[in-house]
Queue: 3 jobs
Job 1
Amino acid sequence: MSTRVASHAGSWYSSSRSTLNRELDQWLSEVPSEIEGKQLPIPGARVIIAPHAGYSYSGPAAAWAYKSLDLSKAKRVFLLGPSHALYLAGCALSKHSRWATPLGDLVLDTETIAELKESGKFDTMSTKTDETEHSMEMHIPYIYKIMSQTFSSPDEYPPLIPILVGNTSASVEKDYGALLAPYLADPTSVFVVSSDFCHWGLRFQYTYYLPASPSAHATGYELKRRDKDPTDPRICESIGRLDKMAMDAIETGKHQDFLDNLEETGNTVCGRHPIGVVMAALEVLEKDGKLGAEDKGRFKFIRYERSSEVEEVSDSSVSYASAVAIL
């Protein structure tokens, strides 16, 4: 059995089992025991969006999604993450059968992976591509930790289906959404979507700014290096508005609304394509009448943070958000 190594352990997060356990426990303990009157984990919350930066940045925000996640009926976990290093027009699957973490190994669902591969819609990642990408790896320790709190033995842990999502078009996202919808409809399937939100700064080539306006959709513009640092609002407040607009679009449950928001603002949501695929899958379930109540299958954002509060054009920040959807 081939194992995908924990290639980012020791740099993006601790390679020490005891240290990593202690950090994850601490971040999870800082999340309230209930959110908006709902005890955690939230029954039926089997789809989440959570960030994937180094744990010193995104670990606390991710804890909100993972403490909310309901694994009580889980028999498999789909993990969708964006591709940072490999250009890919579609999606790709892992060729490994296990995924190592400092806490222990997770088993991959090779049967479901083979089933998806038979569709002819998926490439297979090389080991180099798999181990270079961090967007999914940053979720593996959290998944292992939550499984250890839910199941009595590693033998009972649900297997994993990692899916690397490339630079997919709207129509391709709909195609993959339709393909994954039957799995999403299964109450024993859990979906984890990996995404950071706004990457703001000259180093990210994104300095979009929204000036103060009564309208949530004020016309923005790119700040230049030599521009005077704006104060109405501060840059960090503008970034917050940009992210709020993106999150609001996601919460509508309409895939096209999210795409329109990204087109309007250019917001650098790096997991836009995995989010788009899952939103497209949820729309299929809604169309087929498989969601029931109106609020089912709609993402609800429960946590939002930024790596720093940008005041000057020369500064930068990355935003982290956690969301859950109840099915």
Job 2
Amino acid sequence: MDTLALLFHGFEVALTPTNLMWAFIGSVLGTAIGVLPGIGPALTIALLLPITVSVGPVSAFIMFAGVLYGAMYGGSTTSILINTPGEAGSMMTALEGNKMARAGRGAAALATAAIGSFVAGTIATLLLTFAAPVVAELAFLLKPADYFALTVLAFTSVAVVMGASRVRGFVSLFIGLALGLVGIDGMTGQPRMTFGIADLLDGVELTVVLVSVFAVGEILYVASHYVHEQGEIVAVKGWTFMTREDWRRSWRPWLRGTALGFPIGTIPGGGSEIPTMLSYAVERKLSRHKDEFGKGAIEGVAGPEAANNAAAAGILVPLLTLGLPTSATAAILLAAFQNYGLQPGPFLFSSNPELIWGLIASLYIGNVMLLVLNLPLVGIWVKLLQVPRPQLYAGILVFAMIGIWGVSGSVFDLVLMAALGAVSYAMRVYGFPIPPLLIGLILVPLAENQLRTALAAAQGSVSVLFETPISIAFLALALLFLFAPMLLRRLRAAA
């Protein structure tokens, strides 16, 4: 069955009344959490994991996709109106968007952000539609040694790229690896790192770690930096839509932002911050209105917002085809798959096409929903900023505790959640990145299984890890991530 036929089947799944409802709920939730500073899609999906256990996987992932895309849309609203990015990828939008709002052009800034997000999201979803099956087919060629090398590349690149230093990145990674190894060894049946605690024999519950790291640790950190002064909200005067000149100045940045965001989103550690920064720099360089930058240039809103949304679709390519998360949000989505007993990868395309293609089709539908939700209803979203932050943070913590108790009914899990939340808070305070911890925790079972399989097939010979061109290439890239920054620094010092 070709790609278009599978996509049409996906639309049949996504357009059922139940799944349309979940897509709408996800889009609304995503926009809301994008608007609220300090709360991102990763935290929201982590909080939703305990309560989606009774929901079918197709409906749950359609909702998660709405949350992911919606957060990209909603983050621009606070960036433009109060100069406070609601989501990390919206930082660059604040530079020009807030200046436009203060100059009375807030409506045009919100419009170019929403339309740019729609254009980039749609193009990036098209690229995902046709790229994912090709990558999935190629993934069938990977041997256990290749998969192990791929996980090593993921570990190395994420630990090096994210965080203030490589040492802190690797410390975070090793904490995640250690947590992932707790429990009974599947091959020998021996307990590992359980310290005689019976509750740890089944391992550290993934949902507990995710909720601890994002709900507890993140909220503690945000609350500790809470400033009582309410940011000034710039009123949107009337609804002066984009002028013909605005359209002329925006459509090229939309396309360039998409071209930057999608490929960077697919690589480990790419995220949304890097493509948005690159997009802003490119637009500043190419614009004929350089004098407006810093004063409210519309290109500085259009390009970064397009890059932000395209990157969100980009992270789904390695996630769905290889089971490889390239960001914190992707890591939590991978954990959600595992909660349903599913492992993303090439076999999922053939074993569960309804889920994969229903999810991809829902991205098109969600994009249309979000355009409708964000353009005319911006006044409603701005009112969310009036929710008192202390009550909001307290509510999230209570919701997290109820969710964990509802899933496990274990006092030990609640204590573990509090302990891991305190650890993740300390990590944030001292600059230790969180994504390496999550990716280490989630990928270590896959890495261990593939390593043992490869070594067993080769009767213990380590040379099997370096026998195929693919594994050599992945390991060489991992070494490049490790040593390239050091070599570049030495070359600059020598120059």
Job 3
Amino acid sequence: MSSSSLPKELLELRASIDNIDAALIHMLAERFRCTKEVGLLKAQNGLAPADPAREKLQVERLRSLAQSSGLDPDFAEKFLNFIVKEVIRHHETTAAKENGA
């Protein structure tokens, strides 16, 4: 089925989804730019790559935001955990470089 035969509303919704996906990628890139700086500061100050207390607070905060936004809080938590795991991996790599490993 060609896109010209699809309902206009479907095409408009898909265009909105494409724009949202692009915004998500840009926001994730900005988030990782910031967490890269955090990782460097942690490494330079001898701090651990992970901060379980902060992560717990973030999970609680984002679950609440998800709930009030009509998003499944379990999904939001899984998504955050995925991101945090990658951030910690980056922080560990940064710490190893800073410590000459």
